[in-house]
Amino acid sequence: MEMFDIKDAIELLSEKKISSVELTKNCLEKISSIDQKLGSMLYVDGKKALEDAKASDERRKSQSVLSDIDGIPVTLKDMILTKDMPTTASSRILEGYIPPYDATVVLKLKQAGAVILGKTNQDEFAMGGSNENSSYKPCFNPWDLTRTPGGSSGGSAASVSAEMCFSSLGTDTGGSIRQPAAYCGAVGLKPTYGRVSRFGIIAFASSLDQVGPISKSVTGTAAILSHISGFDINDSTSRNCSVPVFHKELSRNLKGKKIGVPEEYFCDGIDVAVKKSIFSIIDLLKKSGCEIENISLPHTKYAVPTYYIIATAEASSNLSRYDGIRFGPRVGDEKSLLELYERTRGELFGKEVKRRIALGTHVLSAGYYDAYYLRAQKVRRLFANDFKAAFSKVDLIISPTAPTTAFRIGEKIDDPIAMYLNDVYTISANLAGLPAISVPIGFDEANLPIGAQLTGRPFHEQEILNCAFHIEGELNLNLSPASLKS
Amino acid sequence: MALDKDHMIKIIKLARLALKESELISLEADLQKIVKFVEQLSEVDISEVEPMLHAQEDGLIMQEDDTPHEVIGLKALLSSRGFEDGLIRVPRIIE
Predict the structure, then answer these.
(1) To 10 degrees, the CA torsion angle through A220, A430, A133, A177?
(2) What is the pTM of this model?
(3) How far apart are CA A132 and CA A410, in angstroms?
(4) Angstrom distance (rounded) from CA A145 to CA A148
């Protein structure tokens, strides 16, 4: 079966040319034949998925489908709580943990009839950009098994790219949906902060985290976004505003749209192939009737240091709950309570998580708070102001998603700063709370996918989706990785 | 600023992390580099700038102080490996 776009699946399901059981079986067969070498899945419940698919087919027979994605098989990043599946955030500190409730996004997908296949691999607690920080197993890029799928939602992007599901939910705190989507040749969208409920999402940095979809196509991404968005009484940061049916309102007409090109995004460190591809897309948009305008986001240089102060400060607080008492395994239970806390956390958190907890503790500690944390919050305001000024002139902003294509496993693991700098283009959208999408725009000389990032005004997801839809339609790329065809 | 070993010991104590000596040395070296890197922010003029605490500053809602979802109680306690007889067992605190 070569069909892995949700749009095609929705059509075939509604015309009764295919069943959800057939789609689900096909996904499960792919998982069983491919995932041993890919490592994208942490947990699969094939039996439950087939039961849910069968129930979907019954609904279709009785003309009581729940939504247009009823019967579509999806996967979920392991940061997302599922009451009938383990949720570990790829950490040993949550090994065997089965949450007592579903995240709001999971409930919404279930209410829409989506078939949940299982949980995907990721960097531990979403801290990383290569999936190498998973405590359980490595995950590889479907386009080149010696390379990373990106991260932290590496398993989600790989499972979509390798056609083991039709869409996957990831989380994005500094680029963790968009960067792996770019590396794996998929479409990934981080919604505006507040568009999607964070209730039931394991918190990394609460003022930055958002859940969003990764799919093979813009239509698929938009369809899943339509179903997971909306106000939630359980998340006071979710916004009570109308939600468009994004996939039904997609338009390729960009005539008159003003697109900003930030000069600071094309400096040192960007791959020649990535730069060339982005400029060819800018030309394409110009020919399609868009007005291209050079803009400045003057504080871009400070995005990564600002992010690593704010995100680690919030993480050090959020992760204090993992102490061996309420969740997961315990170490040092036989001695004092303090030793139980310290040994459980010292032995069961991975290296990068401990590094970030220590940094966050340092920047919040007495005598350092003002110099680091408070200063970073003020610089964050300057980022938001930069974007406000830019969006007074343009409708959306185009940039690369990442400065390079997928790097080799192990290439950056010993150099945390080099790893952090990989997020330079994606972090600003999280700091300012803006929606941003990564859409495939071509390949480098090693046939590795390149992604373009489109950033929009708050709650203007439709605008970035439309632009991505136009680019996708113009390029018509083949996004099936040849390396997995046997 | 340079992080010395005493400060590192204070940090990992505050963070409730028991680390081996080799881990502490490696963490100290990493944090030295990272702290130097984030100190670039001292170049930025932040006078008269209000801190931005959140990306959703104008749309937050107030909620009733209640529990609109049934997630607490026994189901949540069951997640603990120390759950016994309706309680969570921990090591002795008072000698």
Answers:
(1) 10
(2) 0.96
(3) 8
(4) 8
Map A330-391 to HEC letters. CCCCCCCHHHHHHHHHHHHCCHHHHHHHHHHHHHHCCCCCHHHHHHHHHHHHHHHHHHHHHH
> Nearest CA to A129 among A154, A109, A110, A146?
A154
Reported ipTM: the value is: 0.93
**Residue A144: what are its φ and ψ, rounded to 5°?**
-165, 110
Do A310 and A373 meet the contact criterion of CB atoms below 8 Å apart?
yes
Residue A156: φ, ψ to 5°: -65, -50
Q: Catalytic residue, from A20, A56, A90, A152: name it.
A: A152
pLDDT at A299: 96
Q: How confident is the model at residue B54 (pLDDT cuts 50, 70, 90)?
A: confident
> How many separate domains does chain A show?
1
Contact A98, A85 (CB under 8 A): yes
- Residue A375, in any domain of the structure: no
| Nearest partner of A400 among A306, A286, A264, judged by Cα | A264
Looking up residue A31, the CATH number of its domain turns out to be 3.90.1300.10
- CA A49 vs CA A52, A53, A198, A441, A473: distances in Å: 5, 6, 24, 33, 32
Q: Identify whether A232 is part of a domain.
A: yes
Bridge partners for A74 per DSSP: A116, A167
In a domain, A411, yes or no: no
Instruction: Give B25's contacts in chain A (Cβ within 8 Å).
Output: none
Angle at B55 between CA B52 and CA B57, to 5 degrees: 75
State whether residue B41 sits within 8 Å of chain A by CB: yes
- Name the residue type at position A401: T
Smallest Cβ distance to B17: which of A234, A301, A345?
Answer: A345
Catalytic residue among A176, A197, A238, A399: A176
Structural domain harbouring A161: 6-257+461-484
How does pLDDT run across B11-21, given as a tens digit for each residue?
A: 999 999 999 99
